Amino acid sequence: MIDWISARAPECFDGDLTGGSVMKITPDGEVEWVSHSKKRIEGSFQSSVMVRQLSVDHSKESIDVPGRAKRAHGCVFEGNPAKFLTGHNLFGSADCADLLTRSLEKVGQSIGQEPWPFDFGQADLTRIDLTANWLVDRPQDALPFLEAMQQRCHVPFRGRGVVPPSGPGTLYWGYKKPGERASPWQIKIYLKGLEVAKRPLHYEAMKIPGLLEELARTIRVEVTLRTPELKRLGMTRARDFTPESCKRVWEEYVGKIDFGEDHMTLDTTDLRELGLSPRLIDTVAAWKAGNDLARTRAPSTFRRQRKQIRDACGIDIATSVPTSNVIPLRRVVVAKPAQRPQWADTLTGLMREVA
Question: Any idea where the domains of the chain sit in the sequence?
Fold first, then answer.
């Protein structure tokens, strides 16, 4: 499903639509520039999106910030279309053009206008989030699974996953601190049950049989693509993201995660039986002792030994040493979205009633 859309389209409503303005005034009292903020539009059950529209004339007259005037006019949309339309994002559509069309129609209802006729599949995207779910067998397996991924899995050119300062329950590849420039693409994996516990659904939805139990077993896998990556992929329009292409792109990026072997052992006797040379066994022992081998070995030697050791026994000496001798990890060969839950129709009907 699509969990976030940031898009820019031509004007589609009458007049300007802003949430206020910020201006710079010179000491002489002249307005040097004006920047118009986005307007919050409330949607279904505590959800909202941000929208801003400026006419061509208004944008030319009001905005004199270098680099902004030429692209200031038009309609800007940012938000989670699933939550905005249905009140939740547990499951939903993967048709970007349809979601954007229905979202702007709902924006029009909120402001008492109908959008002008336009093929919103032509809208330019600046960000899109593609998501799907994995399920573990038991709720108590969810957090250990994520912790094992943090210790064992890596992504080329991203390294190991990063746990944000907010604490366990979320794992990033491509994480950036607040204030840093965002990565062109990012993978985020988190516990959906923990998110719902912090931001609950409608109280009636929380009573649906089986919903909370399944959410406690749910691991959400989210791929974020921003402008540079969208341009690289040649997928800059809303029409480019159909259900089929969303699935293909999501699987392509999630497929970058290297899960390694099912089990990893640190016992040197086992390593000898696998045919590792004494030199490679010494390398594993140095890694087990906590040495940063990427710093203490020549780059070519490190890359060669890392590949040899991984091919032989699944140990990745580029990662930190696990806290236990043997770490079981479910190997996901092909990451597939979880099936539509049995309670999906019940939740959809309920959220329509309370919208």
Answer: 2-20+33-258+335-354, 263-328
CA–CA distance, 7 with 213 (Å, rounded to integer): 35
Cβ-count burial of 113 within 10 angstroms (0-12 exposed, 13-18 middle, 19+ buried)?
A: middle
The SS3 of residue 64 is: coil
Least confident of 87-101, 270-284, 323-337: 323-337
Alpha-carbon span 209 to 340, nearest angstrom: 15
Q: Which residues contact 213 (CB under 8 A, 6 or more apart)?
A: 139
Position 115: which residue type?
P
Please name the amino acid found at residue 348: T
C-alpha to C-alpha distance for 151 and 56, rounded to whole angstroms: 52
Helix or strand run (H / E) with residue 34 = strand 31-36
Q: Is 135 helix (H, G, I), strand (E, B) or coil?
A: strand
Tens digits of residue pLDDT in 148-195: 788 778 888 788 889 998 888 999 999 998 889 999 999 999 999 999
**273 pLDDT tier (thresholds 50, 70, 90):** low
Specify the pTM: 0.78
Residue with structure tokens 């604490």?
Answer: 167
Q: Angle at which helices 278-288 and 299-313 pack, to 10 degrees?
A: 100
Decide: 87 and 19 in contact? Cβ < 8 Å: no
264: Cβ contacts below 8 Å, ≥ 6 apart:
152, 313, 314, 315, 322, 326, 327, 329
| Spatial separation of the C-alpha atoms in residues 291 and 281, rounded to whole Å | 14
Q: Parallel, antiparallel, or unpaired for β 185-191 and 170-173?
A: antiparallel
